[in-house]
Amino acid sequence: MLKQIRLVLLPFSWLYACILTLRNKLYDWGWKKSYQSEVYTLCVGNLSMGGTGKSPAIEYLIKKLHKNYKIASLSRGYKRKSKGYKEVLLNSNVEEVGDEPFQFKRKFPEIKVAVDENRAHGIKQLTQQHDLKCILLDDAFQHRRVQPHFSILLTVYNNLYANDFVLPAGNLREPSWGAHRADVILVTKCPLNLSIEKQRQIKKQLQLKKYQKLFFAGIDYSENVVSGSQKLDFSAFNRFTLVTGIANPKPLTEYLDASAKTYQHLKFPDHHHFNTNEIEKLKKEKLILTTEKDYVRLKDFLSEDQLFYLPIEMKLLKHEDKFENLILNSIQRHYEH
């Protein structure tokens, strides 16, 4: 049935792809102008709709870079209830700045975090107000009005952009050949025991350009669940309600199933703002497990003894030093010139 629906939608995808290709060509040819700041900008994005692991990737980069450079993170603040430029503070309202930016600030209070749907304006505001050496552009791969100095393109292990279609027949926000703008292709949510042979197969499917580097990463789950200052052993955490408002909860549910957990799953749309009725229903649940992104939206309404999240980290399968040095060397070359 799904295949038949896609066939019906394919003409609309081709039309949409043509429009997007023309738009990108106008930027490539210089007919539409892109802004590039003097401060180094590193873009993390994808070609598909959500769920590729951008937040863990941004956090991974923050950990690697903030020890050496004064850095900031700039997002659009998807589904926030505000407009324009806003700097994210520890006392910010999560609905006004967005859940992911607030999560970044909460975990890394020493860095600057801001939101602006106009990335060029956001970069200018950040660089005018703060002495920075690197700005991480969250989900800005299609934002062609900004020309980043370095781009990392994420694609999910079991849903590579090379095997997908443009909207509405598929999930791509632009044709797969847009990947040529990336310096690095990072395949996310891989099995941690991914074989070398499978990595070679994926590399062949992606048809990388000579200047592009390929890396593989998986999800590393914490041994504890967390709520405020509390930490509980995950192995003893069982019989709970799982609450998710993320694009793709499947990796999490698969991990819980593999860990033999007993739970019911309440699934909400990505970046969901929980209304009063939903909050009241959740208050009746004895024990809730959620994602860190959902936790920052729910923590003010539910008790610390009731609501917990399972921390995750992005873990490169190999060549972590090579990945880190590639970025550090790129930043160094930028400022040497």
In short:
With 337 residues, this protein is α/β, with parallel strands linked by helices.
Architecture overview:
The protein has ten helices and 15 strands. It is globular, with a radius of gyration of 20 Å. With 337 residues, the chain is an alpha/beta fold. The protein folds into two domains: 233 residues, P-loop containing nucleotide triphosphate hydrolases (Rossmann fold), CATH 3.40.50; 88 residues, 3-Layer(aba) Sandwich (Rossmann fold).
Gyration radius, in Å? 20 Å
Instruction: Please give the count of helices.
Output: 10
Number of strands: 15
Low-confidence stretches: none
Please state the overall shape, judged from the principal axes of the Cα atoms.
globular
The averaged pLDDT comes out at: 94
CATH superfamily of the largest domain: P-loop containing nucleotide triphosphate hydrolases
Work out the helicity level. Answer: 25-40%
How many structural domains in the coordinates?
A: 2
Sheet-strand content, in percent, reads 15-25%
CATH class of the largest domain: Alpha Beta
Strand order of the largest sheet: 3-4-2-5-1-6-7-8-15
Structural class computed from helices and strand pairing: alpha/beta
